[in-house]
Prior knowledge:
By secondary structure, the chain is mainly alpha-helical. It has 36 helices and no strands.
Amino acid sequence: MVVDVDPEHHRRASTDSSSGIVTAATKEANFLWEQRKYVLLQATLAASVTYSAGLSPPGGVWPDNDSVNARLAGDPVLQVTYARRYEVFFYFNAVAFVASIVTVNLLLVHSLSRRRWWLRALQAAMILNQLGLMGAYAAGSCRELAMSAYVISLVALVSTYVCAHVLLFTLMCALTPHDAATDAVAAEAPETVKHSRKYLLIFATLVATVTYQAGLSTPGGFLSDSQGNGSIAGDPMLRGHHPDRFMGFFYFNTTAFVASLVVIMLLMSRTVTRHGFQSWALWVCTGAALIGLTGAFSVGSSRSVKTSIYVIALVAAILLYIGLQVLVFLCKPVENWVHKVQETLQNFLTLDQTESQEHQVCAVSDPETLNADQLLQKSRMYLLLLGILAASITYQAGLNPPGGFWQANATDGLHHYLAGDPILHITYPRRYLAFFYCNATAFVASLVILILLLSNIFSTQGIKYCALQVAMILDLLGLIGAYAAGSCRQVSKSVYISVLVVPVFLYVGIHVLVFMLEVFPNHATWRDMVKKKLELFVPRWLKKLFELQPEEKDEDLKWKLEKTRKLLLLLAILAVSLTYQAGMSPPGGFWQENKTGHLIGNPMLNDNYPRRYLAFFYCNGTAFVASLAIIMLLVNRKLSARGIQSYALTVCVILDLIGLMGAFAAGSSRKVSTSIYVFTLVFAVLICIALQVILVVSESVQRLVQKLLSFLGIRLEEGSSDILPHTATAGEVQDLWDEKLPKYLLLLAALAAAVTYQAAMSPPGGLWDDGQNIRIAGDSVLRSSYPRRYKVFFYCNATSFMASLVIMVLLLIKRVCRAKSAVLALHTAMILNLFGLMGAYAAGSCRRVRTSAYILALVIGVSAYIVVLVILSIGVSKWLKRIMNKMAEQVVNLYDL
């Protein structure tokens, strides 16, 4: 991390240290503690991309067994053709993955939370993670030494530029005399910096992850065999057939990756953040990342100049569209009409004005209604993230279903298919249909969740909370069904996935029940005796670790439970997306046309390394089901509070992380030595965390460490100053919809851009391999077999990507976020963006008109269900209200008589 270089700050700290003025290290620790939510987001996304890259390494895998050269299908090609480069990539990627897991664990351990020295360990893990990503990208994204050196030199140049810019601006500020105007600007600066930092962290994190994946899996695929023109197996096909386009994609994508990574590293420094915004250094890096992302998409998503020009022209068209919308909303008659429609709809939804006031009074007096509303307000961002990631993984799985695609048309009379059709549809038709309908249901349910959460009209209605619960359960059950059908080919394994949900829920339920019995005891004499014996023999540090701390204040306990629930929910959501993708596309790929008699569409790893595949499958499946169970339980506020206090959910998260590590170790390599290396890293992580926990809870170890540090001349901060303060007060829940809406739109736009970027780089239907003489290797198969369907997919996907990118650029401008008309126009553009995403899914996920019509009918049906549910519930409540009023009048008349 960059060291704080504020001279006035150091001068005050040196002169007033005795009076309690906070030092530079303390301010830096407080700053990092305030950004822990974004640190967790960055760590989990880094773990997801390194996990995927380890299971599907750059260069591809061998398509068939070769007894002459002693090669097995599914083994990494790069391991043979570029052995040193593969080793560098593997070890750097594994270090980045384990460092991400370390960061997540450090943020989840209660005993280590809010310790300033602990945050230094967190900083070290973050730096190791960033360095691992850089090294893996430099080794795996290219095959030439000069291009790898370009990546490293670009990182050094950008970092030097930003640091020099910040230092120069700091010196200029120190030499410039201060007056009232500059003091007013300085007073307003912290709020501006805080606003911009949040948005830039979300944007840069998602750009870094998507460009890392695209750089390692170059568009067009890789050569599966060496050729006579000097191309070696594992080289990108795009470099051989379109060299200029490949070089353009590499440099654009690398620029976006490096710029976003540097932005993340510098935003984690308090000094660089404050001066970097004012000197425009960080904005220059952000602009470079945006230009690089746009250029890489336009170059890599197509093979013709005309379509690349169309993609660039979309930026101007979308800006024009949003500008027209802003002008329309600024028009006075349109503004009055919008207000009238909103008031009419609001009055209809609240029955009438007096009833809404009565409802507010009842809501205040009714704790259940208040808790439901608070749950919806506090969990809105995480439910939004659940909907976004569920939509992204089901979108990708629908476009690239498990089993792969046919590389040629059917030549016999038994089957009828074209190149680019799903293999699973022919080899396992029932399994494919189960996967397709469950996946499509989960995708549409995710979009319904997003639309409900982005609607401010229904934001405080109980009916919306009910519809959200139904949509979430439908979404999660659809994910379980699609995973059970698509991740394996045997009925026994599908049953294992389906049945695994039951014991997980039973474990958590029993754990919570035991905890409630301990909190509300009905003690028997034998229980008291056992408890006293245990208290005598259990060590003091172990009791301190697991005690519930009843003396803690209620407000602190509520704050801690709420923060823990949010962190666990965020981690579980990202773990679901990660394991779902890995289950649909297992390491080693699937059998294609082969000479060894294996069934096409089955995982290669299952035939060549059966034990390794079983270890990967069960570890990955266990992590997937555990993550889904955690999400379902965390939605219930009461059950989640009991589960967190009894450590049941924490144990589930630890098992989830262990399952991820086991699946990574089993699927990322084919040798025992490399798997042992991964397990050694995992063991080192566990020892590191255990030592830090013991250091916190054991007083004897703390005294020993203090003596050792004092002998070395190092003095630790004492007392309560070691504990970092809360950054948010517990208690009232404020409705900050207008303030939060731009952040929600930015998060949604960033992840929509990520998923459409990946879909463009790896289009549905697969790519022609190097064995086809008629077609150009690396071109889209769908473009040749279904040209109309490919055009619909491409234009919908490109429009959605460019709309997301334009929305992100506009939301990074503070004036746009403050203007209600502009935010309303961006809100409307985002809804249309979701419909564009839906059109691309309907065109690319299937090859028949009937199944595409099913998806559109499902959207209409779910939307109609919500509308009918709202109208019927309000109509029934009105009818019941009239009946109750009449009955009340009759009772009053009887009393009068």
